[in-house]
């Protein structure tokens, strides 16, 4: 009976987390889709290959207005690098498109609070600056030359994929493209989001606090006075935990909230959030694009940057007296489903999402529009799909237990 209660609690928490976040996903992906359709990316390739400082700034700006999907960001980064963008400006774009995007900040604000939003955006800028410094120090010129040589010729560019910059807000067909892109955004993340929210519910209900206190040494609810070695261990374990979950950044935010609620340090949680580009699927794609030597260099570059950034953010926030209190993060709430602003926002975005998807995939189903994506592993995608389906079975079973047994 105790297991059944925990099962029901886990499912309720997963559904509750997603209910809290649905409108934020919808808003974030809508904004991302609007930008990608009505603001052409073609000029990126023409402007990011000049002076280094200008290229980094433009790469950061272009990344900010792009999609948060890691696989989309990897494909666009490769295209920019191949078409003449400098290596550091390409890395700036990659980091900005996965850390400085609007939708990620919205989700973080719901689950973790304003300090983590500030940490995410400030940290994204620091990641770029630190990566820039490391590249200037290490000067990987041979790796860059080999990476350019490794890139295949004649791959599809952005103009060939239907993003022409000629769309306008008064055209229904342009809005159909928005709907198509909006649907593609959801298609890219549904497995990650399903698994992430399911795991978050299971962790919240079934995993004891002692597990996290062992994994993240001396972590404890309400504790903020960590030693430097404890902070260092947390920012090292954070990426390892992200590597094991292999879930994208959007799906990882509820898990990040759970880690913080269980007493993991601010630095450790930020390192966990920043780690979406150091997981194995990303490493494999970079190796396919640039070769293993460059892929491992990029892994070293990003790991080093996120460790330094996470530690710097922790001590900076501590110095300013604004370190967030873990006790303020509510990760388990029995009253998720109420008639409040969340309910009306969710209903609005559900209706709006239905209309956009109908417009893009039904009314204009013959319209040519696609977006280049990094090549995913078929085996990994199949595994994720079956795990997602098992997650649905788990969630529906828990809901049935709650409604009919307990």
Topology overview:
Layout lengths: L1 H37 L3 H6 L4 H13 L5 H13 L4 H13 L2 H10 L2 H25 L2 H10 L21 H35 L2 H7 L12 H18 L3 H13 L4 H8 L6 H11 L1 H29 L20 H23 L14 H27 L2
Explain what this protein looks like in three dimensions.
- The model is unreliable at 153-165 (pLDDT under 50).
- The chain is an all-alpha fold.
- The protein has 17 helices and no strands.
- The chain is globular.
* Oligomeric state of the chains present here: single chain
Radius of gyration: 21 Å
- Distance separating the two termini: 8 Å
Average per-residue pLDDT, rounded, comes to 82
The percent of residues in helical segments reads over 70%
Largest sheet properties? none
Number of strands: 0
Low-confidence stretches: 153-165
Proportion of beta-strand residues = under 5%
List keywords for this structure.
73% helix, mainly alpha, globular
Can I get a quick summary?
The chain is mainly alpha-helical.
